[in-house]
Known about the structure:
Blueprint: E1 4-10, E2 13-19, E3 26-33, E4 47-50, E5 53-57, E6 61-62, E7 74-83
Amino acid sequence: MSTKIETITINGAEVELHWGEGQGLGTAISTCPADKVGETGPSDGEEFTLRGKTYRLGQHDYSTDQPGCEDDEECTCSAAIYVVEE
């Protein structure tokens, strides 16, 4: 099964939605400067609407162990995508 990837913007950051990967319905992946982690991009529990459905992001995993992430480089953040039942 191939992964469908879509890109949306949440809180000023470009977020890739990798449907069918990881836990839940897929995985949301974004990057931000190390000094802006938590300020830019999606937060834990962030909700977004796409094609009339509401989704929620799980707890983010911040790849702060990447080379340079502790400096001015960008860090990669990922979170599972779940549907919000109405």
